[in-house]
Predict the 3D structure of the following.
Amino acid sequence: MAKEVELKLSLPEYAVPKILALSDQACCPLGNSQGEPLILDNQYFDTVDLALNLSHAALRIRKSQHGYKQTLKNKGQAIAGLHQRGEWEYDIDQPEIDWSLFPTELNIDPKLKSAIKPLFKTDFNRHVWVKQFGGSQIEVVLDQGSIHNDHKRTPLCEIELELLTGQAEDLFGFAHELAGQLPLVPCDINKAERGYGLESNISFYSAPDFSGQLENELNINLFLQDALTRINRHWDRFGQKADWWSLLVLSRHVQAVEFVLSCLIRSDEKLSPELEPIVNSWNQLQKQMAVLLAPARVIIALFVDDHSNSRGLSQRLLQNLTGSLNEKIQQWMNQNALGQSLLLLGDFLYRHGQGLNKIDNVSDVLWQPFSQLKERSLDMPVQEFQDLQSIQALAYFYKRFNHESYGLINNLVRQHLVVMGMGDAMSICVITDDDSRAKLASWTRRITVEQRRLQECREQLKNQILT
């Protein structure tokens, strides 16, 4: 059995020409090219009841210009986006599973062997380079193609960095170097998960249980690992479906990570010098996302509003703004603050995660930023209410802790978004048809009622703090 150690990175398809142009440079930053691209045709197998998937394994036959290979992989372990898993791979003469090649200690059930059938395919072109970085040798792979079954198809475009020899830390170092030139973002969704997801809506992600930690101590390493996973999955969802709601949720994850890192840097003097640039990176990322989402605030407000006509109007408005929003998104993607921040934190967690301090008295720490609300007037204009980001982070924590107060805090976030969006809608005109313009005007006329509801939500939050 070989132990596979790799770092997977998503890459938008528009950036493929740029990475291939890097390969043509005299001193290629990707390393030494391994020849013409491979044309890979991969058939994945499972049973009707998905027995292999349930046992966290994947079985495939790969066809290339050089023949056939059969491969069995288990899920293994993922640490800060770095995958370490078992892999059994063998050359075969024809596209049929040869069970005799697998070691007997795997103890594969004979009933499973007879029930295996083709499930989905991943077909793509693979460019390969080998890079010497630090004391390590790294295989750099660009895969571009599609994943499909008999009914559905989804595009595939990703970079994989696989450790051939050396230290796993060098994968993060090299990935961060590449992320300064390309819009690369760590992603823990492998091809098998994407294939299973075509038909069965299966996710390989399993959320940790943080319930009860609000009244005890918070495992910072596990919490941040989970936040990184959630961030890269929401980013992938946005890339696949242009789902702006995923960006809003992602921004809340970013706020929560920045909050935890700020607590950590205050509590661990030994690690503070190394943490400082990471905290600064996440702080800048948080600010960038606030600016990025500002043009979509009316769309978001309409989406979260309970009014019956609001969501339809949200979709119309999104259609009008899609061009300018996507242009801003691509500019932001090219700067790649998201990818670089994820890699910086992933590297740190891989090296130090198990030794991080835990946060004691989590509830007191979370409420500390809101202590000033005890004396603050609650009738201030919504534009001057500066605590939305902190409250969004608070909502994120309470949801992860499965705490009964989450609904109260999330209602405040939702109500704040509605009032803020109504205020924006009064000063912009992005709808051209008369019917939509009339509906938007009708929606904004409810702002006095919604402001009153916001005050009620604030009062409830204030009472929560005081008790």
Summary: Residues 377-385 have pLDDT under 50 and may be disordered. DSSP finds 16 helices and eleven strands in the chain. The first strand starts at residue 2 and ends at 10.
